[in-house]
Amino acid sequence: MVQAVRTGEPLRAVARRFGVSPGNVSFWVVRCKGKRVDRCDFEDRASGPRRPWNRTAVSEERRVLRMRKQLEASVLGESGAPAIHQALQRAGDRSVPAVATIGRILRRHGRTDARKRLRRPAPPRGWHLPQVAAGRAELDSFDLIEDLKLDKGPQFSVLTATSLHGNQADAWPRLSIDARAVVSCLLTRWCAIGLPHYAQFDNDTRFQGAHQFADTVGRVSRLCLALGVIPVFAPPLEHGFQNLIEGFNALWQSKVWQRFYFVDLPSLQSHSRLYVRAHRQRTVSRRETAPPRRSFPKDWHFDLTLPLSGTLIYLRRTDSKGNVHLLGRRFAVDPLWLHRLVRCEIHFDLQCIRYYALRRRDPSDQPLLAQISYQHPNKPFKGTT
Q1: pTM over 0.85
Q2: Least enclosed by CB within 10 Å: which of 198, 208, 219, 259?
Q3: What is the pLDDT of residues 324-375, one digit of tens each?
Q4: What is the longest distance spanned by two Cα atoms in the chain?
Q5: CA 327 to CA 369: how far, in whole Å?
Q6: Does residue 368 fall inside a structural domain?
Q7: Separation of alpha carbons 105 and 83, rounded Å
Q8: By the 8 A CB rule, do 291 and 137 touch?
Q9: Amino acid 377: pLDDT
Q10: 6-34 pLDDT, tens per residue?
């Protein structure tokens, strides 16, 4: 490059011919200015001395390594940087390197015992449901934003929803949200955009039903089962499973609730509908590759008295004895699978519960741990329709 510029070829033409930037060519031309090309230093290194002035002397490094070898053979076997530092002080050396310096010497020579943390890639989205992770089924996730308050108005809550693959969001600000309100919002959403394969919730009683009674299946779960949607309940106090809907919760609060001043709840509801419409328009390309949703059945009526049919899923973590707690009962899973995640599938038609092992380290391997017989008592639903 330098020789080509010296022969009169334009600098930019030289840069194009060698596939480098003009600044790179100019750097080497200036560096070789006034010198013969065969006597120029073309070594690409930082400016300054080859050996830093504060680099530990080779004799000091060898002394540290010898001390480490002696400590490895000692009774205690402690040979880390703090132990070497103390041993050198006890030996009466005048200049003892600092603990951090000794640690850098050990790392430079590969004499450390500590292993670096192995960081594994995150599991795919919806990994706890194989059909969802493979992109063959859609998952709708629901959550609640509670205890928001208008400046001169009452407190209210927001029911939020979004889909995993299609990213179709919804938000319903209301003064009060109970199980009937959740059912109404779910019906409104699914009548408009179609039915998903799975619907995921947390363990709030408005979603799951009462916790103090055994074998209780709540109103929302019964709605999902009646429409052929599999309800999924995330494990309590676990991170990651609700990230999808919690991310939209944070987005809605930052772009709607915290961004504008609302006089009353109707104005907030109106602006929330505008935001949801704009959000769907921005993410419309996601729907092209999302799994197809089933159409809502015509002339359908929600009957809470019908016997349960279909599949209900609980994601749980086993206790110290390999048991899980669901439906107000404690079930034995596997005495060797302790404090581990489990997908519990309750099949009402087959009258059984199947437990599948879940591991973030290997999300594709979900073996069947156990299958037990379970017959739901089909007790009448306590509540008005």
Answers
A1: no
A2: 259
A3: 999 888 999 999 999 999 999 999 999 999 999 999 989 999 999 999 999 9
A4: 98
A5: 19
A6: yes
A7: 14
A8: yes
A9: 87
A10: 888 898 999 998 888 989 889 888 888 88
CA dist list (Å): 355 to 234, 267, 319, 335: 15, 47, 14, 13
Nearest to 226 by CA among 166, 301, 169: 301
Instruction: Tell me, yes or no, whether 165 and 101 share the same domain.
Output: no
Decide: residue 225, CB within 10 A, 0-12 exposed, 13-18 middle, 19+ buried. Answer: buried
Nearest CA to 225 among 143, 345, 113?
345
Q: What 3-state DSSP class applies to 333?
A: coil
CB atoms within 10 A of CB 338: 14
Number of structural domains the chain divides into: 3
User: Is residue 49 in some structural domain?
Assistant: no
The SS3 of residue 340 is coil
User: Per-residue confidence at 194, pLDDT binned at 50, 70, 90?
Assistant: very high
Does 196 lie in the same domain as 99?
no
Q: Are residues 32 and 66 both part of a single domain?
A: no
Determine phi and psi for 23, rounding to 5 degrees. -65, -35
280: region left, alpha or beta (phi > 0 left; psi from -120 to 50 alpha): alpha
- Placement of tokens 């490059």 in the chain: 1
Pairing outcome for strands 341-347 and 311-317? antiparallel
What pLDDT was estimated at residue 45? 67
Query: Would you call 216 exposed, middle or buried from its count of C-beta atoms within 10 A (0-12, 13-18, 19+)?
Result: middle
Q: What is the mean pLDDT of the chain?
A: 90
